[in-house]
Amino acid sequence: MSDGPLLLHAFSTFSLGGAQSRFVSLANAWGSRYRHLIVAMDGNFQAADRLAPEVPWQALPIPVERGRGLNNRQRFRQLLLQNRPTRVFSYNWGAIEWMVANVPRLAPHVHVEDGFGPDEAQGQLPRRLWARRVFFRVSGASLVVPSRTLQAAGRAWWVPAQRLAYIPNGVEVAETLPVRPLRPGPLRLGTVAGLRGEKNLARLLRAFAALLAQQPAELWIAGDGPELPRLQALAQALGVETAVRFLGFVARPLEVIQQLDLFVMSSDTEQQPIALLEAMAMGVPALSTCVGDVPHMLPAGAARMPRPDDAEFTAALLDAVQRRAEWPRWAEQGHQLVQQQYAKAAMLQRWDEVFAGRLHA
Questions:
Q1: DSSP element (H, E) containing 118
Q2: Would you say 338 and 171 are in contact if contact means Cβ atoms under 8 Å apart?
Q3: pTM, two decimal places
């Protein structure tokens, strides 16, 4: 490894998701400037396939016992003592125990929160709310969030303003809208998502079945996760299995997105989804449920944003397809919005301050 600062990143999983995609983007942009120790508490390091060869990193597998917080804390702290990182980063609720493991503090700690799981889609669980308040208080950790919704949540967790940073996600975006020639064949819808409950891809499958009853179409789903068997069974039950492609883990999701006619998200909860920004940056029109910061991300006058409700989402999808003639305008507006508000350069500048320890102690 290089001689740069040593950063430890604790993830519940390092399979490909929003937090992992952003980390890969940051690490690749900085190359050998930082050294990275990556903890995946489930032993899954799948997203590391996207790290550039020049990024110095090391996987740190560690046994985790569910429901045995004290034992886990001791293991985590021992890992911190053995490696003595310059800074510690923990990502989302699944890795929040690392904040306690770093008490008394062995290195400055930054917790990154990207959103809530299905059990908190409709509101925070009281026990987790109070746990977050206690953990931030005793650890003195800073908090970085990519959405306005999570920024408000950070205030509810009593994180002081000087330790709370809002840094929107950013993606590569060309100066001019990419040329997308007409593609022969049936209409192709698709999404990139972890196959987890909060993504509610069952809602997407049901809406797609309604669309398929009206016209030829195909649906591509890129991603892996625990919901895969249930979703495959549902596709078969709906009679759409021959029109649905489950692509599994995709190391280069942009190669999938650029082949879509319409990018779709059916989530119950999101904050500031990177895949949606990537689709807009590539000039792919998008449809999404009205969750998290999505209302700020999609251009006004584009596809209507339904609530996370099956009937509303189906109606919105059918309406979007009926308005296909408007898709070039949606694509142009989406590309412009990403260029103005969510360009990668701005994100890199802010995150560089975080990684270098200049944003917060």
A1: none
A2: yes
A3: 0.80
